[in-house]
Amino acid sequence: MRTDSEYAVQVELTEGALVRINNGLLELELDLATGEAACTGSTASAVKGMRSAYRWNGREVHTGSYEHHQLKEKSEIVRDGFGRGVHLTVLHESAELPQLEQHFYIYEQSPFILLQAVILSDTGLRTNRLAVIQSAGIALEGETGPADVRVLRVPFDNDKWVRYTVLKPPLQTESYEVTALFRQDSRRGIILGSLSHKVWKTGIKVKSGADGGIGELELYGGAAGELTRDFQPHGYVKGTRVESPLVWLGFYEDYREGLEAYGQANTWIEAPLPWSGGVPFGWNSWSAAMTNLDYDLYTSTSDFLGKEVQPLGFHNEDTLYINFDAFWDQLTPAEMEDALNRVRQNGHKPGTYWTPFAFWGSPAQFSKEVEGTGGKYTYSDILLRDSEGEVLPDVDGGLAIDPTHPGNLLRMDWFTDKFINEGFEYIKLDFLAHGALEGQHYNPEITTGIAAYHYGMSYLQNKLSPEAAGRPFFINLSIAPLFPYAFAHSRRVSCDVFGTLQDTEYLLNSLTHGWWMNHTLYRYNDPDHSVIYKSFNQEPTGWHEGRSRLTASVIAGTVLLLGDDFRKEEAAARAKAWLGNKEIMNVARLGKTFRPVEGDLGEGASDVFVLEAAEEEAFYLAVFNFDAAQAAHKSVSLARAGLNAKATYLIHDLWEGRQGEVSEGVLAVALEPAESKIYKLIAKT
Questions:
Q1: How would DSSP label each residue in 95-130?
Q2: Can you list the alpha helix ranges (DSSP code H) found in 295-431?
Q3: 408-460, pLDDT tens digit by residue?
């Protein structure tokens, strides 16, 4: 046995070609006879029979295909953002196969390991599928049998009103970039996910039989299909050294803590985009007008909010963002100039909208000159095409633009210079998954959709950086892949959300399983525009229905942009009644997402969320009734929500202003149809 005294990680070489590495919280076992590995957490949960695999010359090659498996003689001592530990490499060799390396990183007193697979060939190779983990069995220990296991399916993006889904055995599913395998009652779970997002789209396939046990799991780079919006296979990755995504495998007593740790771990690989300007408060035009956006709506909104609502407390750092959405180009240049001046005179900051990777014209408009190119390129030149040279099919009505094409880079220069010169300080970037589609890219060094997307977004973010813009410029992603994340301050957690109770529940489905992205991947989660009375495309909402939509945005983390036409009397009345609630607005200004209390909800949403505000020595609880017709009586277990069940709490209903006490570990909540509550609880001393 060898124990590194500084790092407290034990590396044990035993007879029979077994290598065991133990850090006190988990044990990694490497079998040099079979080439397989196993990892067991402190709760006896385990991922067994692990091997790596890749597609090569039309067939799958995996670690078991090799004749020789050996541990490189000297383990490497590592000290990085993950902690202190050791890096071990297992080399797999056969005469007629490329070399395959498996890299394992294990850190002292950490409940996770990192893994990566690497293929090497002096003559070069290419593959479009590289699995880091293929496992024949998952053991998730708990109080009940294997059928109690739940699997979280995370969408690749937030398009087409996709939902997060928790599945029960028997099941066969694919999650993207990350998944959680957990037990509902104990919340004990295993988190698996990718940590590098510059080359591969990562898929996680999970299958269980009728007995409920997880019999097959595969985490691989190379996912492409309907739910990644792709029409082409994943692009090939080429070279003498081809690396898989770096992968996280962690064992947690509470899967929610595991997802939060996974989110933070990503930032140790690639830092998030920093923002110090506080939570954006303001308004966005889409729901209020959609295609009917005009000068009067935009300017009257700034006037109304500035005079009637901002003095009541609806603002952050004494300003609001007043944001155009699509169809801002319907204003004449003179109207646009005057509108922006009017907004700035009101002390507000103007925001704009753009789709950098989507073209909305018809084939007859392919010959249109690309802005900023001086006639050198038409849109036909910059559209993304398949391997046969055909333009890819549209997604959501828009055709994909190649992020790597020099014509599109000039186009990005032209539009960003325009937005900066016009004085905008916020931009909503939409339909970004178009830029991540697989296809034949202009730049021959970029062969995958994610590599192209990373390239294009990096270029765009640099164009909008404070150094380039001369001022802070808030970057928001609307419809976009979850990863990569390092190019924006916020991302919408769901697809479009308007004002109905169904919209609120849909938004909270995404928050139930995506709360952990806030202040890890992105500074803020974006709950979309908050429609408190009536969206342009919907009927008016009821009083509780509209307020619940606002409540959902307040607990999201948040980007608090309103979405109504306040020339409507009821919309204006609700704004003045609700947005002057200083305690509710203070919760929004925290910029912190509430955590779900429950997760085993299929395609549904948790109806109880909690936030611990340590600096206030308080907890906040948000409770929702998703039934628009029936009142509800809910009993919230304080222990389940993370509070002390034996304590007595002073409780304050922030919407209604009522105060009282709660004890004996249960909060009884009576809700009218579609109603929601936010409570503040402070332990009584």
A1: TTS-EEEEEEEEETT-SEEEEEEEEEEEEEEEES-E
A2: 295-304, 333-345, 379-382, 406-421
A3: 999 999 999 999 999 999 999 999 999 999 999 999 999 999 999 999 999 99
